[in-house]
Amino acid sequence: MHICVLGQGYVGLPLAVRAAEVGHTVTGYEPDRARCEALAAGSSYVEDIGDDRLRAVLGSDTYYATSDPQDLKGFDVAVITVPTPLTDRAPDLSCVRDAGRVLAEWIEPGATVVLESTTHPGTTRDVLVPLLEEGSGLVAGRDFHVGFSPERIDPGNADWRLENTPKIVAGLTEGCLERVKAFYDTVTDVTVPASGLEEAELAKVFENTYRHVNIALVNELSRMAHTLGVDVWHTLELAATKPFGFTKFLPGPGVGGHCLPIDPVYLSHHVKARHGQTFRLIELAQDINESQPDYVVRRLQDALSRRFRRSVHGARVLALGATYKPGTSDARQSPAVEVIDRLRQMGADVTVVDPYLGEADGSCREIPFIPTTATATATATTVSDFDAVVLLTPHGEFDLVRLAAEASYVLDTRGVMAAEPHIERL
Fold first, then answer.
1. pLDDT of residue 170
2. What pLDDT is stored for residue 263 in this prediction?
3. For the residues of 393-425, what is the DSSP string, one character each?
């Protein structure tokens, strides 16, 4: 089949490459011309897709990246994988709408359009379908097929990839569902049919809401435990020995990535805007997790004052990690970046080390990168030269043994280091 994937980012590029690998002819539509040029040259900016995989599908002429909408002509299946961000703390579906308008012109009878972008229930039916019908002059469910299949991409996860992660599929009609399922059966091992579009859309935002709320719970537990003088990390280890009725979540500097800081807001905002009801747990979790970077800064501020009788202003701080989770270059909505920004606003001299980010990385360009394979920074500077170290993202490249031996003080926000007199865990 001729497959078009609109958006060649963390979700779209893996899908496009996988579809090309199994034998489809794939057009990767990406409005960003610089990205298209990189892809055409065999250079992947998505870490889950290595240059070798990209070059293989380019070499076999099964994949083509373009920013020209005319290249969408004649598609059998088109998948929309564009961003759904927040603008002024409200859901922004402009990219979905733009993709729908671009795609509508090229829909032919019998074609299938699938939305993968995370959004609130009703988006496919109430937002996307009218745009496709208006632009094509065709009727969805009769002349062409429409579906929704939520993405479940976890950047940097080598165990659960696109092909072996169960894929929820939904359709506007039973016929639509059959077409959507038939496509995804070719690229994934397991497809899970949903009874309707809205159920599939709600399942996606709830998956992330579940994590968001539970992370907020342990973040607040961590704060209370610190006040009480109790080791929250050991407490969680003890609770996790229960073989039923408990799932272990861990505290941290906040939540990051595209999903957790954004997706639950889509659900709560939609419920309030459409029905005037408040999803109280989501809003409370949002308040807790968004305030976690400030809590990290306060803990560091208290430690500097208590241990060294100095303020954050003028202190030399080494921040380890800036991405939102270890082993990835994804810095979208990273709480580590917020911690770093707040410390600098307070006058701290912050040096950031992250082996996955460089100065040219658009997602984190405000952070100066210091190349390293361990915890030592540039030239003759050593860990002991800093007043404090804050471990924000525990990349495997960091030498934690050396860090423990050389640092004057460490605030470990991820609980990966053993507690010692000079090492505090969040």
1. 98
2. 72
3. S--TTS-HHHHHHH-S-EEESSS-S--BTTEEE
Closest CA to 390 of 321, 330, 291, 326: 321
Pairwise CA distance, residues 284 & 216, whole Å: 8
Q: Determine the Cα–Cα distance for residues 188 and 317; give it in Å rounded to an integer.
A: 45
Q: Which of 32, 74, 176 has the alpha carbon at shortest distance from 115?
A: 176
Mean pLDDT of the chain: 90
Q: Which residue has the tokens 């070719």?
A: 186
Distance (Å, rounded) from C-alpha 25 to C-alpha 76? Answer: 10
Per-residue pLDDT of 117-144, as tens digits, reads: 999 999 999 999 999 999 999 999 999 9
Active site residues: 259
Going edge to edge, which strands form the sheet with 145-148? 63-66, 25-29, 2-6, 77-80, 112-115, 145-148, 167-171, 191-193
| pTM reported for the whole predicted model | 0.86
Quote the crossing angle between the two packed helices 280-308 and 335-345, to the nearest 10°: 50
Contact 3, 19 (CB under 8 A): yes
Which two three-digit tokens encode residue 122?
């009703």
